[in-house]
Amino acid sequence: MEKIQDLYSTRVRPMPPAKRLQLARLILDDLAPTDQALDISDEWTDDDLADAASASARHADQSMKGNGAHDESR
Questions:
Q1: Residue 24's pLDDT is what?
Q2: What is the pLDDT of residue 38?
Q3: For residue 14, what is the DSSP state?
């Protein structure tokens, strides 16, 4: 691990941010799974729909509480 830290400190860190991002993308692209393993379907499963509905309900509840519109005493 020390060699990796040395490499980062001496070669990568001095690079301009844009070059560092380019390097990071190259590394991540190299590590990414192949297209065969990716599910890029536009269709939503029942679980996806349930998760979205749940998140939407939580967000609406938090928004109402934050605005003072959710008053239990009414």
A1: 93
A2: 59
A3: T
